[in-house]
Design brief:
The structure holds two protein chains of two kinds.
Chain A: H1 15-20, H2 31-62, H3 67-79, H4 82-95, H5 103-126, H6 130-138, H7 143-174, H8 186-194, H9 198-226, H10 243-248
Chain B: E1 6-13, E2 23-30, E3 35-39, H1 46-53, E4 61-66, E5 69-70, H2 76-81, E6 83-87, H3 98-102, H4 104-108, H5 113-127, H6 143-155, E7 161-165, H7 173-190, E8 193-198, H8 201-207, E9 210-215, E10 219-224, H9 226-231, H10 236-242, H11 246-253, E11 266-268, H12 273-283, E12 287-292, E13 295-301, H13 302-308, E14 326-328, H14 333-342, E15 347-351, E16 357-362, H15 363-371
Classes of the chains: A mainly alpha, B alpha/beta.
């Protein structure tokens, strides 16, 4: 294992200096290295959550099989503190000889991301217009075809919103992994705390928040790319009256 | 040509947890190439009956056959791909363009792209969708345009049967009237076996070749042609349901050519004055109509003929008033009545296809026609 402490370092005088001048940082690994690890952990966790949560919610919602369960899952996600999940996974992993990272972190984050992904997908599928599904069935779509060709594309805007929430949460929470000996952007916060280096803590916090926001922006672009054109609020023509106009002009008089 | 007939034999539907059936044992034959309308108050099982034909709902008992084949013998998807389905909410796919929506079933059954493209263009023309609209999304269309797309989509793979569940219920009356006319014009070209559910008796009478009036619980009260239904309601329920203006409604159903068209107080211009007096005396009319070469020229007041008296050489010398009220043979009685009410001679002149004089229509002849 490489030493985490660089041989020489100058004390930073503010968070900005800490961020921009690598000679003031005490931890040997570079910001890009830790950023990559954060992306790896958070991305891995989110991917697992999406790979499990979306198909599961799609099928259950299509057959209306988890009306109570879907509400439970959301609440369960809120009730159990993430740090506990992380601790349980890391301890279990250590006991079985797998080490600190990355899988305990990834699985814990996947578990954290699952509720919003599942709940949003479930709700989104339930809100697909019944007449579109009904007419698909009447035209001879199989149930599987209804799910993939009608419900999934129509639910995509809401599903993407759920994924964005989950990813932002997961990136922010990934920092906790550093408490359990993992690397990643959180390491600056936990190490900064241990040596009472306020600028390092601030710098680490800025990095974590910045990464979370950047991830949200990127997913916003992804959502734009994958949501079907006809579903977008602003296509080639505005498909609906903008909300602000509906609010400000009073009763709308139709010609 | 053996067409597609839909037969219901003892079809019953009792929903789980309900003591009384939604559809009582029902026997009904929907004729090939005809529009059969199912009508009745809410709870009469008309939509349930429709949905049992393409097995969106399964009957509790009884048999439904299309072309003699039990619908249960075919796979669900195969059966439904062969039956067009139009609903009030239309149910277009918002994430697909108009063209993609229309192409839904052809794509499902695996047509190649060129054939689909040609078919979409053909249907757009058939139902009156401008080609420029094909690339748009449903949310960009008006309600009437959306329903046209819905009909085009239902017809896409050329199914012999079309099921329509209150297809025009969600559009305003003006658009509805236009869509109804378009459906009739369309049907004249495609000759589908159409089953249409509605709660609007005027729509039923206008569109239906046969109308089935259902009572609550799916009891068939009467199954007859619209004119029959209005002229001879089987019982009080049907009479009540078709409403108080049955005769007025019938006026829209019957055509001028169905009446006994009298020749009326009309003579040829070359006829003698005596003949003219004789016709006026026989008909008791205050107006005399003149024709030449089978064409109707116009009217002369009987009083002028009397004033001219014996000094008149021929009818040619009289001043002829051009006819105000002329109807074509295939006009409805409603249109003829409108003209009669505004005509000073209380008579509408009937014109044949080739423009020749075809007789007259009066209040009397319309009343006689309705009494039959």
């Amino acid at each position: 294992m490489t030493s985490l402490i660089a041989a020489t370092s100058a004390e930073p005088t503010n968070a900005w200096q800490w961020l921009t001048d690598s000679s003031t940082r005490e931890i040997s690994h570079s910001i890009p290295h830790n950023l990559w690890l954060t992306i790896e952990h958070a991305g891995g966790g989110a991917l697992i959550a999406v790979a499990v949560g979306v198909p599961l919610a799609l099928v259950l919602a299509h057959y209306r099989k988890a009306e109570v369960l879907s509400a439970w899952i959301v609440n369960l996600g809120r009730v159990i503190p993430t740090i506990t999940i992380l601790a349980v996974f890391v301890v279990a992993s250590l006991r079985n000889g797998y080490g600190f990272a990355p899988w305990p972190i990834i699985f814990a984050l996947a578990l954290l991301a699952l509720p919003p992904v599942f709940a949003n997908t479930y709700t989104a599928i339930r809100q697909v217009p019944a007449d579109a599904v009904g007419s698909a069935r009447a035209m001879g779509f199989g149930e599987h075809q209804i799910m993939t060709n009608v419900e999934l594309p129509l639910a995509l805007p809401l599903i993407m919103a759920g994924i964005r929430v989950a990813v932002t949460q997961v990136v922010a929470t990934e920092a906790l992994g550093a408490l359990f000996g993992s690397e990643g952007l959180g390491i600056y916060i936990s190490y900064g705390l241990s040596v009472s280096d306020i600028y390092q803590v601030q710098g680490g916090a800025i990095l974590v928040a910045g990464t979370a926001m950047a991830a949200d922006v990127v997913l916003g672009l992804v959502a734009r790319a994958v949501v079907p054109t006809g579903m977008r609020r602003s296509g080639r023509r505005a498909l609906r009256t903008p909300r602000w106009r509906a609010l400000t002009t009073g009763p709308v008089v139709h010609p | 040509m053996t067409g597609t007939t839909i037969e219901l034999r003892g079809v019953t539907k009792t929903f789980p947890g309900s003591a009384t059936p939604a559809v009582a044992p029902l026997d009904l034959t929907m004729g090939d190439g005809e529009i059969t309308v199912l009508i009745g108050p809410s709870g009469c099982g008309k939509t349930t009956t429709l949905r049992m034909i393409n097995r969106l709902t399964n009957p509790t008992a009884g048999v439904i056959t299309i072309d003699g084949t039990d619908v249960r013998e075919r796979s669900l998807t195969e059966l439904r791909r062969g039956i067009g389905y139009v609903i009030q909410q239309i149910g277009l796919f918002p994430h697909r363009t108009v063209a993609q929506n229309i192409a839904t079933v052809p794509k499902l059954v695996g047509w190649d792209r060129a054939r689909i493209k040609a078919r979409v263009a053909e249907l757009a023309e058939l139902v009156g969708i401008e080609p420029a609209m094909l690339g748009r999304y449903p949310a960009e269309l008006s309600g009437g345009q959306q329903q046209r797309v819905g009909v085009a989509r239902a017809l896409a793979a050329d199914p012999p049967v079309l099921l329509m569940d209150e297809p025009f219920g969600a559009v305003d009356p003006i658009v509805r009237a236009r869509l109804q006319r378009e459906l009739l014009a369309l049907q004249a070209r495609v000759h589908k076996t159409i089953v249409l559910v509605t709660h609007d008796i005027d729509e039923a009478v206008l569109l239906g070749d046969k109308v089935a009036v259902l009572n609550v619980g799916g009891i068939l009260e009467q199954f007859a042609a619209p004119d029959d239904l209005l002229a001879h309601p089987a019982n009080e329920f049907v009479a009540d349901f078709v409403g108080h203006e049955r005769s007025i409604k019938r006026l829209s159903l019957s055509r001028v050519e169905d009446l006994d068209l009298g020749t009326g107080p009309v003579v040829d211009r070359s006829a003698s004055v005596d003949e003219a007096h004789a016709v006026l005396a026989r008909t008791g009319s205050t107006w005399l109509g003149l024709t030449a070469d089978q064409q109707f020229l116009g009217w002369v007041p009987a009083a002028e003929l009397a004033v001219a008296g014996a000094g008149l050489d021929g009818l040619d010398a009289l001043e002829v008033r051009p006819p105000a009220a002329q109807v074509h043979r295939d006009a409805t009685l409603r249109e003829a009545l409108e003209l009669i009410l505004t005509s000073s001679s209380s008579t509408a002149v009937v014109v044949n296809d080739d423009g020749t004089y075809g007789g007259t229509v009066t209040l009397e002849s319309i009343r006689g026609g309705l009494a039959r």
